Amino acid sequence: MKFADEFRDADLARALGARIAAEAGDKHWKIMEVCGGHTHTIFKYGIEDLLPSNVELVHGPGCPVCVIPMGRLDDGIAVAHEPGVIFTCFGDLMRVPGSDGSLLDAKAAGADVRMVYSPLDALKIAQQNPDRKVVFYAIGFETTAPSTALTLMRAKAEGIRNLFVFCNHVTIIPPMKAILDSPDLQLDGFLGPGHVSTVVGIRPFEFVTNTYHKPVVVVGFEPLDILQGVHMIIQQIHEGRCEVENQYKRVVHDDGNPKALEVLARVFKLRSHFEWRGLGFISQSALELQDEFADYDAEKVFSVPGVRVADPKACQCGEVLKGVLKPWECKVFGTACTPETPIGTCMVSSEGACAAYYNFGRYSRARERERVLASGDRPDANGNGNGHANGAVAEHELRAIPVQAR
Ligand code: SF4
User: Is the distance from CB of 48 to CB of 362 less than 8 angstroms?
Assistant: First the structure.
């Protein structure tokens, strides 16, 4: 398949891994892949096994389902239970646990909850059910927001008045800034989000190079894309450069997609603030509908509780989303929390880091031992983190890792 097979060449991948190992030297590198799609590729293809143990990939906050806080899910479930509502959402969202069950549980309890593949499906349901109120739970970054915007524009143009959007679209730049401002994590560079960049281009990431002096390479989603991106970051640092580079030129234009940006500006505006799972409230980090589309805004038409709900005590999704913990370091990973019985969001979506670790079983005990020794990670005040003072590996902790995760 053009643009896929040539980016999955195993010999080239091994050669690139060897070159990265040669150029990485003794330094411990921490490179964050921002996008959940990259996390998925990394584990599906075993990219970490091709990298030396001192090149660590840190998983970022770019999985749209993972970052939705429990309170926003509870809000959606409350709307789904309103009389006469047909509640539509993407399939993975249906399994995310709220404080009193998931949307699937709500469906089992009698709410009319339907899975859709696109907001246009919700529009069709609205056309077919003119006497019902059809709500679409919109999630995603700048990648998916244009499809919601175009659907609303079509609904307005066709005079359809029974479609409502519960808008949870978020933007990628503010959480990156929050991570860069956090003292928890010292990164060497970023693999920039390929999907989001198809819409916004590469220029919005220049604040990372200009203000924080970290290189960014926007990369694609095949194994060689990821490896080449890692190599480009190491090269930049060796050459004393700090730039936003575009490895994914076959898809991403430096200036993005002007048409998509135009429809985003027409339909959405920035919210003053929005709560992110694990990251708390971040100002201007999410979208809401412009006043012109207020009649389609589920938050204005329905009574949404808007209650803030704390994550379950056992859940460490926040630390995983910030890249502070590896999924297997969460106390319930692979035991109480699995894709069949998720406790947190990161175990639900295929782009979630915990689901990627669990489903592809790429966890390597030997590799993790090397990584811990190389980084000298120490426990935090709560005993979280690796728990390896002075870089020593606690053997009992390694033994405690569930078999499925290895
Ligand atoms: S294992 Fe489950 S609870 Fe723990 S961080 Fe992952 S998704 Fe969250």
Answer: yes
Please count the CA atoms within 13 angstroms of the CA of 400 that sit on its side-chain side.
Answer: 13
- 223-238 and 36-44 helices cross at what angle (nearest 10)? 110
* Gap from CA of 349 to ligand 1 centroid (Å): 12
Q: Using a 6 Å cutoff on CB, does residue 344 contact ligand 1?
A: yes
- Residue 256 belongs to what H/E stretch? none
Is residue 405 lining ligand 1, measured as CB closer than 6 Å?
A: no
Q: What is d(CA 326, CA 324) in angstroms, rounded to the nearest whole number?
A: 7
Cβ of 315 closer than 6 Å to ligand 1, yes or no, is yes
pLDDT digits (tens, 9 = 90+) for 211-261: 999 999 999 999 999 999 999 999 999 999 999 999 999 999 999 999 999
CA atoms within 13 A on the CB side of 67: 32
Residue 191 vs residues 135, 148, 327: alpha-carbon distances, Å? 35, 26, 19
189 residue type, one letter: G
Predicted model pTM: 0.87
Rg (CA), the chain: 21
Q: How far is CA 149 from CA 67, 185, 344, 380, in A?
A: 21, 35, 29, 43
Identify which of 194, 175, 195 has the alpha carbon closest to the alpha carbon of residue 185.
175
Q: How many residues does the chain have?
A: 406
Q: Which pLDDT tens digit goes with each residue over 251-307?
A: 999 999 999 999 999 999 999 999 999 889 999 999 999 999 999 999 999 999 998
Determine the distance from the C-alpha atom of residue 212 to the mean position of all C-alpha atoms in its chain, rounded to a whole number.
22
With a 6 A CB cut-off, is 318 part of the ligand 1 pocket? no
According to DSSP, the β-strands at 273-276 and 268-270 are unpaired
Q: Which residues pair with 140 in a beta bridge?
A: 169
Q: Under a CB-based contact definition with an 8 Å cutoff, are residues 401 and 365 in contact?
A: yes
Which letter does DSSP use for residue 98 in this model? B
Work out the burial of residue 155: count CB atoms within 10 Å of its CB; fewer than 13 is exposed, 13-18 middle, 19 or more buried.
Answer: buried
Task: Give the contacts of 16 (CB within 8 A, at least 6 positions apart).
Answer: 50, 224, 227, 228, 231
- How many CB atoms lie under 10 A from the CB of residue 372? 21
Burial 209-220 (b: 16+ CB within 10 A, else e): beebebbbbbbb
